[in-house]
Amino acid sequence: MSRLERAHMRAGPAAERDPLLTAIGVTVRNLRALKGVPRRTLAARAGVSERHLASLESGVGNVSVLILQQVANALGCPIAELLGDETTAGPEWLLIRDILHQRSEEDLRRARLALADLFDASEPIDQRAERIALIGLRGAGKSTLGRRLAAALDRPFVELSAEITRIAGLTPAEIQDLYGPAAYRRYEAQALKECLAQERRCVLATPGGIVSDAGSFGLLLSHFLTVWLQAKPQEHMERVLAQGDLRPMAGNREAMEDLKAILRNRTPYYERADLTFDTSGKTVDAALDGLLTALSQRPTQGHS
Asked: Are 303 and 275 in contact (CB under 8 A)?
């Protein structure tokens, strides 16, 4: 533990369970779950001890601005987001924020769609349906089912993770380990933009965490017909392990709880998809037939 950490772990009773510290802890915990980053990994990236990060997430003890900045950098977000206020760039942001304050999710959705129409940022659903994007957690069937769906529809299949590797010369995991989440998101956005420029018709399998980047997720919603592939948490884990990827379980006894937390935090984003399709308990053939049926019965109007 560093000297800075030790100094700020020593907090008086008045600082414990302070509402601001509690709110910061909840924000950090939720952002970490949204991005799918284990506590141990985030602590290493931020250059703080896992114990100190646990205290921060629990809202116990004092916290320095420097530690917050390190954690924000490791999460790839501005420090203002940890404090619950990312809309402080200027007067227009503040005025817009005041209009949107305490609006319902449905009101906010309508506001987003109106802004997208205002700035010609979204295509009509019939045009978006030429490109189909599969979203969801790892193990939902995006790659396996995506390839079969592309063949059935006679469209190119694009695996965004493979495109990221092609562009960067490194796997997504290597990019994260070497350069951090901000660099990875830049490569992810570049790969998505190249797909949009090159493919008029395709089926796209996306990384599970793409929904945590507003820019890339906005492009998906505006230019693809999005399908959330669901599965039960146990099936997610079993499928990933069956593929020979032992990382979800390596050194982590709470892997299933972590997966459930990731799903819980990402669900409000996945729910923005045009269609939801549950692959639980289905063979690949049955899932393909069901997905083709769902796509044929999709709404012909509207937005995500």
From this structure: no
- Alpha carbons 170 and 75: distance in angstroms, whole number: 20
- Predicted model pTM: 0.75
Listed residue (269, 291, 247, 256) closest to 35, CA to CA: 269
pLDDT tens per residue across span 131-158: 999 999 988 889 999 999 999 999 999 9
Domains of the chain: 3-82 (1.10.260.40), 111-296 (3.40.50.300)
Contact in structure between 36 and 43 (CB atoms under 8 Å): no
Distance CA 50, CA 41 (A): 9
Instruction: For residues 131 and 201, give the distance between their C-alpha atoms in angstroms, rounded to a whole number.
Output: 5
> Could you read off the pLDDT of 46-81 as tens digits, one per residue?
999 999 899 999 988 677 888 889 998 898 888 877
10 Å CB burial of residue 119 (0-12, 13-18, 19+) is exposed
- Which amino acid type is present at position 188? E
Read out DSSP for 245-304? Answer: --TTTTT-TTHHHHHHHHHHHHHHHHTTSSEEEE-TT--HHHHHHHHHHHHHTS-SS---
C-alpha–C-alpha distance, residues 64 and 54, integer Å: 15
